[in-house]
Design a protein that fits this description.
Elements lengths: L4 E2 H8 L3 H9 L6 E3 L5 E3 L1 H11 L11 H107 L2 H6 L3
Antiparallel strand pairs: 1-3, 2-3
Helix pairs in contact: 1-2
């Protein structure tokens, strides 16, 4: 008894639409397709094997799968696993490279921060030194102003004494008649 499946049966087994299977079957060579007693298009065993390869699904559930198909499926699984492993290794290498790059960047940033901290410390010392110098300058200016005021007062007192002495001396130098008549 030949194994044959209709398009509707294949669509149900493969889990795709009847139209998709019908389009696929129409593109098959005549050796894979036949008409049954009722005139319905059916796919013969060779066509079913071809559909198994295309859709990667088993159509013959009750029949044992040939050793060739088993070997092919096993090889595909092994190849897929190898590709996945290779892909994961590439991803891991890329991520490790990125981690290394970021780590180096962090080290550079840390170094820059340390340098900036040192510069700020130096600037703080310089500012403190300038503040001290300004304070000293203000104290010197205050002292100088006080000294100036003191000297001005002493000068004013000295001028007053000199004027007094001069006026006394002028009074002594005047002759008798000048004093009497008020002349100079």
């Amino acid at each position: 008894m030949a194994i044959e499946k209709t398009v509707s049966e294949l669509a149900e087994i493969l889990g795709v639409s009847r139209q998709a299977v019908n389009n696929r079957v129409k593109s098959f060579p005549e050796e894979y397709v036949e008409k049954n007693d009722k005139g319905v298009t059916v796919v013969n065993r060779a066509g079913l094997i071809k559909l198994e390869e295309i859709y990667k699904k088993t159509i013959f559930e009750d029949e044992p799968v040939s050793e060739d198909v088993k070997q092919r499926e096993l090889m595909e699984i092994l190849v897929d696993e190898a590709k996945q492993r290779e892909f994961l290794e590439i991803l891991i290498d890329e991520k490790n490279t990125e981690i290394t790059r970021l780590y180096d960047q962090l080290k550079a940033k840390d170094s820059q921060l340390e340098s900036k901290d040192e510069q700020l410390r130096i600037k703080d010392v310089q500012i403190a030194e300038k503040d001290k110098q300004i304070d000293q300058q203000q104290q010197l200016t205050l002292t100088a102003m006080q000294d100036k005021e003191q000297l001005k007062l002493e000068l004013d007192e000295a001028k007053a004494e000199v004027e007094e002495i001069q006026s006394q001396q002028e009074g002594i130098k005047k002759g008798f008649f000048a004093r009497l008549f008020g002349g100079k």
